[in-house]
Fold this sequence. Notes:
568 residues; Alpha-D-Glucose-1,6-Bisphosphate, Chain A, domain 3; six-stranded antiparallel β-sheet
Amino acid sequence: MEDLLAKAEAWIEDDPDAVTREELAGVLEAAVGGSAEAVADLEDRFRGFLEFGTAGLRGRIGAGPNRMNRAVVIRAAAGLARYMTDALAELGVDSPGRVVIGYDARHGSHDFALDTAAVMTAAGHEALLLPRTLPTPVLAFATRLLDADAGVMVTASHNPPQDNGYKVYLGGRIVTDEGQGAQIVPPYDAEIAARIAAVPSVESVPRAADGWQMLGEGVVDDYVARVVGLVGPADPVAGRRAATRIVLTPLHGVGGDTMERVLRAAGFDQVHTVVEQAEPDPDFPTVDFPNPEEKGAIDLALALAESVDATLVIANDPDADRCAVATKVDGRWTMLHGDVVGSLLGERIASRTPAGSHVLANSIVSSQQLGAIAEAHGLGHANTLTGFKWIGRTPRMVFGYEEALGYCVAPDLVRDKDGISAALLMADFVSDLLAEGRTLADAIDDLARAYGVYLTSQVSARYADLAEIPATMARLMASPPAALAGSPVVATDDMSAGFRGLPGTTGLHLAAESGARVIVRPSGTEPKVKAYLEVVVPVEGDDVAGAKAAAAETMEALRADVTTALGI
Length: 568
């Protein structure tokens, strides 16, 4: 207890932020006064430093090393600055590094961005700060556009309002292969983390009072122009696109203004933004959880779509790197699964890509349909580990996606998921279909006729005791199910030993004789074990409805089997 109290007192002494100093002092006082709750709170705050990994930093805002705060961010910026200095020196470069810094509208984001700029400038690097709160794809774009050695985006994406995060990209002279401008992967994360750990105190980190460069709106203009260029300007097709009525929600995030600019510049004049969710608000007051995938998150958008007789609903997550799409299916507004949108975009891009060396890529837990699409168009296909830090590094990629609503439709612009460019391509697709008297539902049926029905779903088990997660995985590895949805399991693969040429990762792959597939793995961001399910049913003749019904029935049986296997 005395050691814990001493750590808290030392942290308060070193904390540059009056607000978090006062917060921690209050907890400390309560703990000294005998509050068991305050002691438990202190123990959690001082369990260790917030871990820096391939997702950078992400955690709850508050005082202490196991929270997101200015002290933790200053240490992280100092470690990254040291890494840049060392990496450039190893390359024989004696000029300063260049880092672009962006931030969203979450609590603390602006301060964290300014602290990063101050640390980088004092370390001798050129720090370029985006002009205002902007989407993550704009930061990723600027990192490549400005040939920066690093990019930092202060965001917690679609996490709850009490969280914030710190995402790092590398490029310029430090990373020059297909991963240039992509999020960090090993060993970069460990090398940066080691330098962060070596920072003795916040007080020891020099911070400049000024000297960084504030970028102008030109970088945003360039992003908008390049994204609009993916579908062509408005004039030649103004009539076709103008007929497409779009409802848009940025879910209180920072993507609304940029998304509207892109759509209108491309000729989509009928854009109806959900007023209640249009402006950035770090408290996300109209949703329980600011993630388009969560139940109820897009209810306001669907209600507006019904009232304006919309053609398409687009929902971005708060930093606009993800994109959800809803359309009418059988007369009802339906949000499309990420695998469905991924296959639709994959087919559209593949049909416009010459056969040869180009590649479509998706994460191993995403649908197998993209592989069938690539093969049909004479393109390569690559599976990657989960996350765009891996997908974005795929050589010769022209399109990549992950089922969690992340799509990369223009790797040359943004080597990451981009919910704005993906939304524009979907809107353009819908406008083409509308001109033909057809809908997205028709396009989904076209995919089924060409490749069969690929139906995906997910089952997850949440644990209060984190020790149950490896125990669950060990139990499944030792005794996997012998059948899935009535079909014998013909392949059982421990993914930690490597799978289909991928690096080892904790997971279990099961394949049934019927073509059903299950991948079970621990979540990287939540206390969950997730199971990714897929069934494949061929279409006989033109009986798409029959194949869909058979797939749904098989999926129900598969879900039941997996639920039993997980013990939930």
